[in-house]
Amino acid sequence: MRSITNKIHIIGSGLAGLSTAINAIKKKINCEVYESSKNAGGRCRSFFDKQINLKIDNGNHLVFSANKSFLNFCETIGSMSTFKLISQDLKFFDIKSSHSWELGFKENLLKNIFFKCPIPKTLFFDYLSFLKFLFVKNNTTVNELVGRSKIFTTFWEPFTLAVMNTSPDYASAKVLSNVLKETLFKGKKNCLIYQPIKNWGESLIDPAVRFIKKNKVRINFNETLRKVYTRQGKIEELVFTNKKVKIKDGERVVFAIPPSNIVKLFPEFSLPCDYNTILNIHYKVSFKNQKLFKNEILGFINTISQWVFVKKNCISITVSDANKFNSLDSDTITKEVWKEVCTFLGKNIQYENAKIIKEKKATYIQSPKNNALIQKFNEKKINNIFAGDWTQNTLPCTIEASILSGKKAIESL
To answer: 193 forms bridges with which residues in the sheet?
Structure first.
C-alpha cells in the first residue's frame, strides 16, 4: 500500500467502522468517524436495560479460534483478557424426540463425528454429507446440497441458521463450505469458542473506542448522513444532521454502514433488498435457577429458539431467520420460548423478567443470488470505499467479517 497522509472520513461506528478507524491509526492515517446514534458498536453494543435492571448485549455472537481478524483486533485494543474460552463440548437438545447429544471438539473432529455418530439413531453413512461441502458450486443452496441427509434437521438446518441467519432453502452452500473448511474440517485448534466474560460491549466495543480516542481520533455521535454530493464520481460534500463536511482533494470516504442505508444514499446501486430478523430474548432468573444449566452454550432443535447462552446475569436466547415473528407480540414469543427452556430442564421454573430485542434487517438473506449481487458490486470500479460484514460475500455476516472488512477498506486505499 502506498503512503497516505490525507484524511479519511468513516461513516458508521459499528464494528466495521471501528475496525476501519483502528486500521487507519495503525497505518498512521488521519481519520474521523461519524455515527448516527449516540453509541458505537451497532449489533455488538451492550446497554443497561431498566425493564430487567441488567446490562445486556444487543445480540449474541459465536466467535471461533479460526477467526484471526477478531483475535488480531482484540490484541490491538488490548482486550483478550476480557474473553473466556468455552471448554465444554457443544450440547444439543431435540425437543421433538427429547434426545440430547454432544459435539465433541477433539483434535480430530471429523474422525470423532464419523466414528462416534453423536446424533442419536444415526450411522456412519449419515455423516457423509459433510464431504459434499468439499466441492460446492456458487449457485447451490444448503438445502439442494444436503436437504435429503438424515442429519439435515438435527445438524445442517440449525448449523446453517446459527452461522448465516438464513434458511437452508436460500442459504449459500458455498459460504457454509468456507466456514466448515476453516473450523470443523481443521479440528479443535480452529473450533474453540470465545465469549466475553461480562458482555460484548466491555470486551469489544468499549476498548476499541478507548483505543481510537487515545489516538486522538474523533467520533461524532448523533450525526446521521443525510446527503452525499458528488461531481464526476467524486464526493465533494457530506451533509449530516448538524454539520456539512467538505471533502478536500486527496481525502477519502469509507461507508461502513448496512446495504439498506447505502441504497438510500446511492439509489443507482444494486444491492440485496431482502433481510432477516434476529431475535434475542434475555431472561433474568434467580441464581438458584441459573445453576440448573450445566452448559454455557446449548443448541435447540425443532424449536423456535436455536441457541441458549448462559451468561453471568441472565439466560439469553437467540432466534435466527425470525421474520415470521416480526408481527407477533413480544409477550407471546417470550412465553413460548421459555416453555421450550422448561421442557429441556424437565421442570417448570419462573423467570423474574425478560427483555426481547427484535433486530430487523440484522443481515441480508445470504443466498447465492444475493452473494452474486454483492460480488458484482465489489468488482465495480467505484471511487468510494465500503466496509461492513455484508461486503465480505465469501463469509457469513459475522463479527469476523465486520472486522476483516475494515482492514480491507484501509488496504484498498
So the answer is: 64, 86
| Angle between helical axes of 68-77 and 399-411 (0-180°, round to 10) | 80
The contacts of residue 411 (CB under 8 Å, 6+ apart) are 1, 23
- pLDDT for res 286: 94
Helix, strand and coil percent figures for the chain, each rounded to 5: 35, 25, 40
Give the list of residues 6+ apart from residue 42 with CB closer than 8 angstroms, or none: 12, 13, 14, 15, 16, 58
Residue in the structure block whose three cell numbers are 469489544: 204
Q: Which of 274, 278, 277, 276 is closest to 370 using CA atoms?
A: 274
Q: C-alpha grid cell for residue 270?
A: 444494486
Q: What is the reported pTM?
A: 0.95
- pLDDT, tens digit, 9 for 90 and up, residues 163-198: 999 999 999 999 999 999 999 898 888 989 999 999
Around 173, how many Cα atoms within 13 Å sit in the side-chain half-sphere? 21
Q: 142, 160 in Cβ contact below 8 A?
A: yes
CA distances from 31 to 8, 163, 213, 255, 382 (A): 5, 33, 11, 13, 20
The pLDDT, as a whole number, for residue 5 is 53
CA distance 390 to 376: 13
Nearest by Cα to 34 from 264, 261, 215, 257: 257
Q: What string of DSSP letters covers 212-260?
A: HHHTT--EE-S--EEEEEEETTEEEEEEESS-EEE--TT-EEEE-S-HH
Q: Give the span between the Cα atoms of 308 and 258, in whole angstroms.
A: 27
* Those residues with Cβ within 8 angstroms of residue 390's Cβ, 6 or more apart along the chain or in another chain: 258, 259, 272, 363, 364, 374, 397, 401
Grid cell in block for residue 342: 422448561
CA dihedral 194, 200, 202, 208 (to 10 degrees): 90
Percent of all residues in the chain with a pLDDT value above 70, rounded to a whole number: 97
